[in-house]
Amino acid sequence: MQLERDMQNLLQDPSFALPYWNFAIGGNKCDICTDDLVGAKSNFEQNLLSPNSVFSRWQVVCEFVEDYQSLGTICNNTASSPIRRNPAGNIDRPMVQRLPEPEDVLLCLEVNLFDTPPFFSNSTESFRNTIEGYSEPSGQYNPTVRSLHNLAHLFLNGTGGQTHVSPNDPIFVLLHTFTDAVFEEWLKRHTTDFNQYPLEDAPIGHNRQYNMVPFWPPVTNIEMFVLAPDHLGYAYDVQWPSRALGSTEMITVAVIAALVLVAMIFMGATCALRRRSRKSEVLQPLLGESYPHYAEDKENTQSV
Ligand SMILES: O=C1C=c2cc(C(=O)O)[nH]c2=CC1=O
């Protein structure tokens, strides 16, 4: 939100809103990697951005993570190299050559618990770990899988796919606004019980009452475990995909539809038969063939 406000100030446009990148579109194309958006691929160098994009002139800062760790130095914001990006181009990892599928988002929204022990990247049936992308989209932990948020990062295959430098790629923000939109939708669809947020035992910075580092002013994790339109003053406009029916569901629907049709035919036929019999009852002569007619009656009386 601070970034959005900063950009509103820079642009002198209070209506500016951060967009999101719906990365759950499947396939191997980065739909926003065009020169009018976040930059197309260079025709000259496969890992770089097209010179027609403003972002081809952006430089990566804080690239030397080994130095920061081994020498204990702090990143001094020295620019070192251009942004690298080669979507779907990681030939060593075919699994990250495709974006998440729309269905993956739906499955992840169905995971009931926010988090489960050990509150880490190997948690299973945990919404937090599933949207993060260390589980099958349905929530089952699988160490070989990368999905959703993680898969979107790795798909970018370059600056945006390396944790310590990924914020240098402008896609970073759009990838995370969408991830936040999925979180928002999950909060909407599930009763939000604060107790599901780990009070302890999560990695440092991730417990319920811990501050979210490095945001300023300080804000705790639990303060953000709320519906954004009601408490934070923003909302997402997303068309969530609808769920395609599985084969068992399709058979169930077909059987129900067939039963309803048979019931309707039966009811229609019964009504028609009833109406017909009621009609013939109404038109029945008061004196049937078996009753003597008045004239005959009279004749009989006279002859006596
Ligand atoms: O920038 C990031 C890069 C990531 C790579 C993975 C992974 O699953 O290997 N996860 C990432 C998260 C990032 O934020």
TrEMBL record:
Ribosomal protein as UniProt keyword: no
Keyword Zinc: yes
A Pfam family assignment: Tyrosinase
InterPro entries named among the record's database cross-references: Di-copper_centre_dom_sf, Tyrosinase/Hemocyanin, Tyrosinase_Cu-bd
Superkingdom, natural source: Eukaryota
Swiss-Prot/TrEMBL keywords: Copper, Disulfide bond, Glycoprotein, Melanin biosynthesis, Membrane, Metal-binding, Monooxygenase, Oxidoreductase, Signal, Transmembrane, Transmembrane helix, Zinc
Catalytic activity, reaction form: 2 5,6-dihydroxyindole-2-carboxylate + O2 = 2 indole-5,6-quinone-2-carboxylate + 2 H2O
Gene3D superfamilies found in the cross-reference section: Di-copper center containing domain from catechol oxidase
Principal subcellular localisation of the protein: membrane
Membrane-related topology note: Single-pass type I membrane protein
PROSITE patterns per UniProt: TYROSINASE_2
UniProt cofactor(s): Cu(2+); Zn(2+)
Biological pathway: Pigment biosynthesis; melanin biosynthesis
Domain Tyrosinase copper-binding: 169-180
Residue stretches spanning the membrane: 250-273
Record localization: Melanosome membrane
Family membership noted in the UniProt record: Belongs to the tyrosinase family.
Protein name (database record): 5,6-dihydroxyindole-2-carboxylic acid oxidase
